[in-house]
Amino acid sequence: MSDEPTDEPAREQTHRGMIPVRRAVCPGSFDPVTNGHLDIIGRAANLYDELVVAVFVNRSKSGLFTVDERIAMLEEVTADLPNVRVDSFRGLTVDYCKAHDIHVIIKGLRAVSDFDYELQMAQMNRGLAGVDTLFMPTNPEYSFLASSLVKDIAGWGGDVANLVPPTVLKRLIERTGGA
Ligand code: PNS
After folding, report:
1. What is the pLDDT of residues 61-116, one digit of tens each?
2. Which of 18, 56, 65, 157 could form a disulfide with 69, with the two C-beta atoms 3.0–4.6 Å apart?
3. Which atom of ligand 1 is nearest to the CA of 31?
4. H or E element: which one contains 99?
């Protein structure tokens, strides 16, 4: 067997045999992860052999939780999804994809209002590095849900128990001092 590098995609043993691993990334701030994120993560994990949920440092948003805390919450709430891995990155999504042999970005779309910006990013990422983005419609039950709203409501003592997993709720209450 030659050790010469080839252009062939990596072939690994998967549940479908010796075929290329279908790997995707679900990038976001996840500050914190909500039930809406979790719905997208679970459905995307059904479509790929490996799904990486990556916490990206968004320079235009200040965080309530540190990146390590966000990772810990994501690991807790995806513990029952064996093909999901949690990671973090400071930099461009396409650079993360290149470094980890990932060709697909998964994004949840809540409403038409998400579409303009998401389309712009998808086309930019495709132009920068040939990485495609797949949009997944959010479950209508979560179409209004956003981490920013959850933080605001929790901070004023509002009830967000139906919007986030229990472990996130506990940390939100601890962090914001909400009721
Ligand atoms: O959960 P968010 O805050 O909507 O996620 C936004 C995120 C992290 C996906 C976006 O800001 C991003 O892709 N950041 C990485 C930096 C990058 O690649 N910027 C160029 C986008 S075309």
Report:
1. 789 999 999 999 999 999 999 999 999 999 999 999 999 999 999 999 998 889 99
2. 65
3. 1
4. helix 93-99
Q: To test the ligand 1 pocket, which listed residue (29, 57, 70) has its Cβ within 8 A of the most ligand atoms?
A: 29
Q: How far is CA 115 from CA 31, 39, 50, in A?
A: 21, 19, 26
Report d(CA 45, CA 56) in Å as an integer. Answer: 19
**Ligand 1 neighbourhood includes 56 CB (under 6 angstroms):** yes
Per-residue confidence band for 1, with pLDDT thresholds at 50, 70 and 90? very low
**Separation CA 133–CA 118 (nearest Å):** 9
Q: Which atom of ligand 1 is nearest to the CA of 27?
A: 9
Contact (CB, 8 A) for 104 and 24: yes
In the residue annotation, 110 being an active-site residue is answered as yes
This prediction has a pTM of: 0.89
Q: Report the DSSP pairing between strands 17-20 and 132-137.
A: unpaired
Structure-token match 């799904």, residue found: 51
Instruction: Please give the share of the chain, as a percent, with pLDDT higher than 70.
Output: 89
